[in-house]
Fold each of these.
Amino acid sequence: MRGDAASMTLLRAKSAADALRLRARNPAALPLAGGTDLMVHWNAGLLNGRTVLDISAVKDWRRIKVGKDGAEVGALATHAALLRQPAVVAGWPLLTAACGLVGGPQIQARGTLGGNIANASPAGDTFPPLAVYEARVRVASSAGSRELAFSEVFTGVKKTSLKPDELIESIYLPRPAKPARQLFRKVGTRAAQAISKTMAAGLLWLDKKGAVGELRFALGSMAPTVRRLRKAEQAVRGRKLDRETIDLAVKLLASDVSPIDDIRSTRLYRLRAAENIFRGFLEGRLEGV
Amino acid sequence: MRSVGANARRKEGPEKVGGTAQYIDDYDIPGALFGVSVRSQVPAGRIKAVHFDPAFPWQECVVADARDIPGQNVVRLLGDDQPLLADGVIRHPFEPVLLVAHPDRATAWRALKHVRLEVEPEEPVFTMEDSLAKKRVIWGEDNVFKTITIKKGDCAAALAAAPVVVEGTYSVPHQEQAYIENQGMAAWFEGETLVVMGSLQCPYYVHKALQPIFALPPEKVRVLHCVTGGGFGGKEEYPNMLGGHAALLALKAKRPVKMIYDRLEDMLATTKRHPAVVRHRTGLTKDGRLLAQEIDIVMDGGAYMTLSPVVLSRGILHATGPYECPAVSVTARAVATNTPPNGAFRGFGAPQTLFAIEMHWEKIAAVLKKDSLELRRANAVKIGSVLATGQVLKESVSAAEVLEKTVKRVGWDKTKKAHARWNADAKKPTLRGLGLALVHHGAGFTGNGEDYLKSRAGVAVDRAGRVRVLAGSTEMGQGATSTLAQIVADALELPYDAVSVERPDTAKVPDSGPTVASRTTMVVGGLLRRAALDLKTALEAGGKLRGPAAFKAAAKRLCGTAPERRFLADYHRAAGSSFDDKNYVGDAYGCYGYAACAVELEVDKATYEVKLLRVVTAQDVGKAVNPGVVEGQIVGGSVQALGWALLENCVYKDGALQNPRLTDYVIPTALDVPDIDVIVVENPYSNGPFGAKGVGEMPMDVPGPAVAAALLAATGVLFTFLPILPERIQEALCSQEAA
């Protein structure tokens, strides 16, 4: 372990107001929620000399409230806590499927939804479901709070549009109409404790004639940030999912992503696997969680 | 009473389960400094200068370099080519150059950021081809650490006359041992005696290596073993280096020094499995009987010799597989590259060459349009078979038995038919396949290795009748302590709990050789059984012992005025066995274990991910002294081999590992493997204790080719390399589609 605790400053927030006050005064401090990613950096000695703002004791941000129109998930709700809520599993199964594939049980018990978002990894497991559910992220500072569409949160690899004095307070999940088909698929390096090579989340609604009412499909680990397949979603709207439409949609997939060759996989593999999953979903062969 | 054959409770179990086991970093050594290593960042070059940042408090540190070494700057093993600290020349990335110690661990780590090596780079050699082509000579006269050849009959003539000739080239990669406890050693001086303690497999290797570095006689060096969290060969030779480093800092600091690697340093700097390329040219009859095997093996040893010649030796001796062939010609070379030295890893050269021969059977089967199972059946060794070295197999040959047991358990024909139906259905989301491999594994040291080792082990009895095992063999999670105690308990007809095992400490136990090569149960266990029988004879001088009280009284009588009596046994080669290690002729191993493995898997058509459905393996171990321990070795070794086959991918750039973390170097978790269906076969070996012939390494040999064969059955693609990642499957299937 190269982490040097003695060189670091630890600030502990007792309440939400306390957290925002400390945040305002220490904009360079690194927020600590579940610590599942932070501790990896600590171990490598990358946080020596840094200030850490521990917000894990802020109870208000741990709550999960499920209502008729949607769910309000506190930023500090853990993946395990979401999995334990039958109403969340029933209403947003793609999200809880992703939560169940984050790391392993230990990581799920500590890691938080807000921490996952703030960390802004291109491979964040919960992001494709949050993207297709069109979640909204409530961020707060001592000056007040504001709401961001999920698509506005990420600006690049490990970068968000949060201001230095802001912290994520909660994530709002609008309740979707019952989809005709849904899918979550994580392709990792192994069955657990794996970083994703590619991930897919999809929701499909059909109209009365069997044509596409709405398609939402998101891919993770395929670009610096999670991507909705806007071009393909647009192209299939109002059309029957016949061979020609599906071919067109699959062809358009590549134009919304930019996968790379890296230590975990190749550009071509990511693209081909994502296309196969997308095609399987549109053809009705691949669905579920 | 008998404990051999029973699942005796692990001696070290309670302290491990209870959390009281003391690993090296658990020892609080008063006054100890923490040591770290300054390493080269380039693969090859000359050190021009070392720059110390004046802003860092160097006066608080102890810094040692090659000039501080009182004796020879070598890490003694087979050769003296590897320096303890680089002296002017850099031969691989992360080669240690300087050592720094500080009382505070974090400050010691921080020091690394404040020292800079100025190195004039030289042209490096990274590949085996470039090394053989002498792109630059980086070791000896021709970059070759060792060349070995084996000849049987006239291979060239047999190949020329063969009705069918099949050629193939197969390659296998590096593998990280990934023991759960990183390397760690501590050192201090007690008067003039150097004491070194740590996580290690071979106390007497460290003992031997430290003497020339510090110009000390054997009695002034003491090596102690700590509870060790896994080794897999990774702690066979590397502790020589790390022990030397800790001791050098301790000498200069005049204080104890502890050095504990973190995962990053451990993965970047310590040894890995040797990558290998193996070429086969095989002559056969039309119905698939072997006529000639011409084999060429090249292994990448890295920058220094370490154990490469003996890894190569085991590799070449397993290259033909467990098959009989009238004419054989094998050439094997280990070559130097500017990469961190490769070293011992479970299997020790055999998994590399056995992968090649087993995949070659798949290729031959495709050429001959036959089931590879039939080809293995037709050519497998049996009693009386003559191996490539001329060794005649006289006893305990189980190739056919393990093969048939595996095939029966997995339902070979039925499963293959079910797969054919499954794969014909385009709606199925996967492609399924079943594959098989058959191997042998020489038990104990290769050739005359055991004669050179001259192992000694024994038992002590004290006046109270307490019996202790005395051996340098180390427990690293594999169950050696319990197994050895069981053998001694049965030889003495004592209950298992009446036998304890001395902690390996060169001041207290004899040199029973290294804890490697699947030799501990067979060789050391054999010595212990003999020593225990000698003790029993001595105790029974006054008549048969009946019950614990009689044993105690006899022990008291035997000890007389001494606190204890020791009975030691020395290794002697079995009568009628010999090996010529110049020409590689004769009895390469006293005996062989045999293993077969069948793997059933499926490949996802969308994502090319491989899911293992079933793994069945039958392994002949002679005698399962502790069946639970044996099954543990087979399951663990199989999982390690499945990881090598499907997941573990060492990515190198400029001679340096690019994924030195367990996040990106992916080893299997329990979710990645099915329950391993183990069939233990016990075909006794007359020279092994209670018939035992070793089990540690064999499980590593066999799943790799079985996986590749199953993938061939599923996809129609013959993968000639490992690891077979989803990316490689995608490439192969997409180019198949395009063609």
Amino acid sequence: MTTTHGPAGSPAAAPKLEKRPSPVRKLNRAADERFHTQRALRENLNKVFPDHWSFMIGEIALYSFIILILTGIYLTLFFDPSNTEVIYNGSYVPLKGVEMSRAYASTLDISFDIRAGLVFRQIHHWAALLFVASIMVHLFRVFFTGAYRKPREINWLIGVGLLVMGIFEGFAGYSLPDDLLSGTGLRIASSIAQSIPVAGTWASFLLFDGEWPGMNFLPRLYVAHILLIPGLLLALVGAHLGILWYQKHTDFPGPGKTEDNVIGHRVFPVFAVKSGGFFMMVFAMLALLGGLAQINPIWVFGPYDPSKVSSASQPDFYIGFLDGSTRLMPPWEFRGLGHTVAAVFWPTVILPGILFTLLALWPWLEAKFTGDRESHNLLQRPREAPTRTAIGAMSISFYLVLLISGGNDVIAKTFSISLNAMTWAGRVGLIIVPPIAYKATKVICIALNKRDHDIAHHGIETGIIRQLPTGEFVEDHRPKPDPVPDYPLVPTHRFELPAPGHGNGDGHAKGGITTRARKAVTGFFTEEKTESGEEPVGGPRH
Amino acid sequence: MSEQDDTSTGGGSVFDRVKRPAGGGPAGGSGGAGAPEGPEVLGTPPAPTDSTQLEEHTSWRHAGVAHRPPRAEDVDRRAERRAERLIALWFTVSVIGTLGFIVANFAGDKHKAYYTPCLGLGIALAVGGLGVGMILWAKRLMPHEQAVQERHSFKSTDVETAVLEEEVALGFDAMGLGRFKLVRRSLLGAGAVLGGLAVVPLLNLTNAKPGKKLDHTHWVKGARMVTGEGRFVKLGDISIGGIETVFPAVPVKDAGGTTRFEPQLDLHTKADSATILVRLEPGINKPRPGRENWDLAGLVAYSKICSHAGCPVSLYEQQTHHLLCPCHQSVFDVPDGCRAIFGPASRSLPQLALGVDGDGYLIARDGDYTEPIGPAFWERS
């Protein structure tokens, strides 16, 4: 314990090589002889990750992705993605004898007849919600602290790609069971595909294998859900983490922290144990939700029937903003020259297209507007960049109006409001709320900045009031203290390495009886001897 | 700086680790005796309640580091043992959770209500116990430190960049793409044509060209209207204010010359031919020009597939005679030719001409809808 607390700035001498290595050390040396691992291992085990609660949101997304893969593998073993119609004969009595697709029947089986099927199905669904939600919150953290600035723009871009892919993956996933709710969602998706000018009808026919409801499209949706998109997600997650690892994490300003260092815990041991524990906690939370909180009870909805729909049918939350934009859209359908552009095209293709393009390009847009082309490793507090924070608040309020409008029928029913009034409130709100959010946020940020400025220049109020000889009363201010770190700063490379150039022989040449025995039989395994006959070619040691 | 703090400091935690600045000097003096250089203190200074102002804490400040008081585990062997036992307890909870999961999985009755919650609880304890134990372990027993690592600029030196650029340029020179125009152009051409390898398999994804498929439904002239349960519908089956969803039952000539009506209740027929019958009060229907005789004693037939995004329009409000689509809240006014009056839909629902056959059953008098049903598409005129 005490060895880790070496005094700052004076690394200890390098330790001697252990002469009688334990099996683990032997393994390590064997790997090193083949892959030259020691330097890279040391670098990576000593990698420092800064501590802040907001840096754990992205971890939640990563962990829910891992849980999605684990539970998803279990579900693939029992799910049958087939449109083929069967008569249900499982143990859920209310649907006995009902004609349905095998996809729906096998989902019922997973829910009622497969051991631990329902709990893993529900964990999978909850994890999907958590995955997208934590990506969004992580995005807010990165946005409001300016973490995407140079040199991290590419990772921002990958993150936006992960969000979009995560939304597609979630939609594909909850569409697979072929229940009434998911079928309705797919019907709308096919209408959206159909609405694209010029290529739309073909796109819809290609996606669903013919005119809706298609011939046998569940298998291809399944391939997209369990192979194509997860493969892409995995690659993007790998790139995201790899870049994060390589570029090192950003950190908030603080005592001892500069643009040129990272202060926190090393990967080994503390960060690894804490993160492992955090993964387990996320898993435990999802297991609790999956076990105790019902989600997507497909047996209540019944099998898909294109002529039926349940009222107040709601998609998963991450699709809600598209539902909202579709509901708020005025009936603008353009007809002319023998062609039609559907009203559904604008809010479901054009709007998200613009939103996600702006989101993806934001780091470059900001750099362009501010002229800031410098690299940044220290984060900003939201108030330090009032315009950016205001734009963020504006965007979130825009998103929230859409999201709320996606459930406007439920809200109208719950609070006995006219549905038309809700729609109009959404239409008007979409135009007036974001500017208000922008203005209010900017004013608040500037005011907070001003207070910080006052404290920095005039100090903190002490509560001590003094009377000057002139009779004037003044309050004492004391300067804001410089922040001081809590713990001593310890360099990660505690042991100094000798200058490169001369290896240290580890004394394997002379040895005990086994070494001599090995030498004696070596010739048997090697076909030739060197000219001098002393050492075999390709022998174990030179 | 004087080490001793006067009593007037303290208060908010911002002050915890600061001493009075050298320039400021003590403001009041601890005794309140009235410092000669300063004016008199009015008001009540906050009481010094913060323990970090005490001597034993302040004396640790050195080398720019303000230590927190050590954890109990660092100084007290028994506290360390207690922490160790607590962590082991959580790891034991994990074992219990795993065992509980195994027992519940195999011994539990999977049709009982307790089954899934027990499994979830078992997993939660199994992984949560490990998680809590690991985090306690890191926080209570592992040393606290602030490791420092340097960052380096990612930018290469000018020489490195120049050398690489030069070498790559030489490489391209050696490839000769600049000199051999024919190679360059034919290569680009080949690359572009190669795209066909990607496009053609994509086109194979559909079993049929769209063609005019979206323009037609399964309704044919004389097709009877049949409910989802397979019952043919007569006018009297629907009371005033009532609705019914019907599908086509197409006439099939048997070998003997008799006509059978084959109900089409498969998904594909339901998806485009679902039709909603609404019985309006007599006299309130305002038929469109040319459709004056499409209704039957107040009974009208419209496509059930929403002209907006294709959901079934299934909510009918009797008093207002409005049909509502539950997906995006488009509202259609039934007596006015199912005109879209609110929401994102912009087109009326297509109408089907009603008739009665010799046996009194409702039929599609003129055959299919006169316009494509459902959502718009590019080729729709």
Amino acid sequence: MIRLLPGAGKHVTLIPNEWSVGKLVTMTTTHAAEAPPPHAPDGLQEHFDATIARDQRIEPRDWMPDGYRKTLIRQIAQHAHSEIIGMQPEGEWITRAPSLRRKAILFAKVQDEAGHGLYLYSAAETLGADRDDLTRRLIEGRQKYSSIFNYPTLSFADVGVIGWFVDGAAICNQVPLCRSSYGPYARAMVRICKEESFHQRQGYELLMTMMRGTAAQREMVQDAVNRWWWPSLMMFGPPDDASPNSARSMAWKIKRHSNDELRRRFVDMTVPQAEKLGVTLPDPELRWNEETGHHDFGTPDWDELMRVIKGDGPCNDRRMERRRTAHEEGAWVREAATAHAAKQAARARKGAAA
Amino acid sequence: MSAEQSGKQGWPLYEVFVRGKRGLNHVHVGSLHAADDAMALTHARDLYTRRNEGVSIWVVRSEHIAASTRDEKDPFFAPSADKVYRHPTFYDIPDDVPHI
């Protein structure tokens, strides 16, 4: 083990190690009882600020302000929970997919969502969060997930519209996060964005197929578009003047663009796709603005967003119940695997001693 | 007692390294929890190589990794900065000497 070098050890704070996450770095254990100092000593704050200013990444074992760490844990956890809960709306259609091809695609997509959740939990753990604790917080309703997953998937067209709108909105949100100042989060986002592109394209292709079908199928697509459009715009969060923490997150380069900016980008991106598809977006105020070079569009129902976030959306209870049940029903598998590993380890020890 | 109830007895954390293709080094890609090494490998395959991202995977218990001190501007690496003669650009060679 490497000895702590002179000068570096005076004010060691409890910084988690990318390699031994959530525990103390071995070399700092002698300082384990000390709480992090309220003000960063020895120019650590300056070093952190300079790293951000140079557009370099903060890595797990760097010193970082408490607020930065807490904001990131909250944001990454919420993002991870969204991916995990996000398996449900579409997952409900796996057994009812109209063909083996669509079933296989949907399986792969839902599996990706699980993967995204796990990449993100892994990133949160580099900040000292504990995965079991995060799961518990989700199940107990103490941490949130994206409001969008509290809406029902009423027809198979919803699977396509989710891919097109929800994953499209996720791409708008997430591509800039690939340059987030926190290294492990940015790296997770790179992987996720590559896969989201498959999600969006499969959704759009599904809808194109339905639009080439019967009048009833086209109606299903338009109905799904009507139901998902406004909730998708809400995915970007409250308007900028009602988003108090945004400025700080932007200063820390955790966030790169404002909610309204990303929302507008999503609208600009989606309008021509809707035209090609032959559907109408349900907003009478939606029109191209020559002057701004962007689309003007209506205001989402922010009261609805607040209601859904507070737990009163159409499916909040169902989503939470499903997650809780899955966790509880999987307990015996986790316990059996732990017992098996312990038995094998004991056998190996006995074998080595003999 | 269940791993859930005991909390701290949950599955240990593993770091995952993937060789993208033949000729490349294994690169750290992330971490996961697993009950044992075999499970860590199969989970790593499912989680990190769903699209041909690798031809070989290493997993290692995170607690078994020894790491250098915490900061990239660490005194640990300072000695490498003051030995400029280790770099080829340190040596002046006339322009008309070929192939050097």
Amino acid sequence: MKFALFTGCVAKGATRELMLSTTKAAEGLGFEFIEMKSASCCGAGVVSEKSPLLADALNARSFSIAEKQGLDIVTICSTCQGTLKKTEAHLNEDKEYKEKVNDILEEGGHQYNGKTRIKHFANILATEEGMARLKSRIKRPLTGLKVAAFYGCYVLRPSERSDFENPDNPTGMEDIFAALGATPVYYPSRVKCCGFPIVMMNKDASLGMSGNALQDAIEHGADVVATGCPLCHLSLDSYQPEIELLQKKNQSIPILHLPQLVALALGYTPTQLGMDSHIVSTLKINQILSGSSASAH
Amino acid sequence: MATFRIKRFNPEKQPEPYFEEFELDIPDGATLLDCMNEIKWTLDGSLSYRMSCRSAICGSCAVKANGHALLACQRQGEHLLDNDDTITLEPLGNMKPIKDLAVDFTPFWDKINKVKPYLEPKDEPPAKERHQSPEEFLLIDDSSTCIMCGACYSDCNTLEVDDNFLGPAALAKAQRFVGDSRDSKTLQRVQDLSESGGIWDCTHCGECVERCPKPARPFDRIKEIMTVALEKGVHNNNGARHALSFTNSVKRSGNLNENRIPVESMGFFNIPGLLSLIPIGLRMLLKGKVPPIIHHSIEEVDDVKRIFKELDQ
């Protein structure tokens, strides 16, 4: 299976381990991901604050790039996914608007025809075919690891643009964890906001949100949180030492990118997946996994 | 037989809320509100909640069902049953319960009032009505549909951690006047709305859009106010600086320069703001997580620049 990979900016910047682990996960799963090197930033719902038309034109240009290759787009960031789907909806719901955007693209040799589907990495896996492929390639089941999903708002809301069934109470990520041999942990905050979008404007509120979510995951017995969004990862991992709620109780919890978790089960080592570059140590995961494999032997 | 697990609260009898279960055969086609009425009328007359029109117009009967706010009269009871044939009912969030499912709306109304939800016209009243073109009316049509049910306020993720936030309903109402062609105070309004607790404290979670029973979709309205604020030059705050820095970065290179955006969002003269970036910056540096110092452009960035130019951005 071949996809155009829309990397997003953060996977090439502050969370390069996401890019690294995506490459490994794709390799292990036998997916061919072709990086879209001329696609621009999705705008993250921020460029559209300045100009909705500008944001849509830039994203329509990216769709056109994948269309020319005859490929569907795979995203590895909930924010990219939601933002691209928003543009797609704007273009498909209003023919005149689509023509206006295509007029803007024309000089650059681009045109949007609506042929390319946009799927988050999780939604490629959470299909019958994806699950079958995943299960057949697992080399090291994640037995004994209790994993809490953190979805990232943009892949769930608005629900009419979400690929997850029942976005208020989704199970797609948890189904993937179970297929990997891990134990999914269900907790209310898994569908909430990590607070990242306002960390520059209202840091206390932002860290309050991430703190509540992590506390919730810990209280429900999670060993690790796995997310499909690098912005959530920044909030939950990189800012974790500043989250007072956890510091007061002397708690911490490692945060993985979804492709890291998948690639671990496919047999790659934590170092190959950049897990040593996280702010919160991920060593606990290795200990749990080696403990369970030792007891299995 | 369905189980209704209802959060009960009566501070006159006991200080802590508790759950009570009621068994009810949901009549064919009954709304959740019909079920609540049935419970009140036949099983426990002391159950308290607000209701009036039963037609999704008055906005009185919003409650949380299975953890999410909705209008009880707008949804079928059958459709809300979980795998155990149970519906869990709780009062709306982010407001204090008064009794059972009724909450105190005082902060909600205070915030609505704070955004001056009335027209401040440009001139003396004309002899007849003030005209708007259909296009002008469309700009405020969606926000006009708000029925003040509080469902968005209940599930707002920012309000859960910061009660200073005006919240989705008040901001959607604000857009009703920011976007009104007959109003004279647009600049003043967007300046006020750019203060702490205003538009830039919205965390983009989309909960309000999901819970809104009408086309008001508060988050979409908040973004419209942001665009007006930026157009009107209200740039002296972190939210506006963030949006401008972000957009300029895409304009220059086609992607985001993550090293620049925190500094530009804080503002070069905002010393406490800049100092607050040091801990995270150092942590990232020590772990080799700092984005590449030399920022690379995407391939074919000239085409992106052309699009910016064509749109006068």
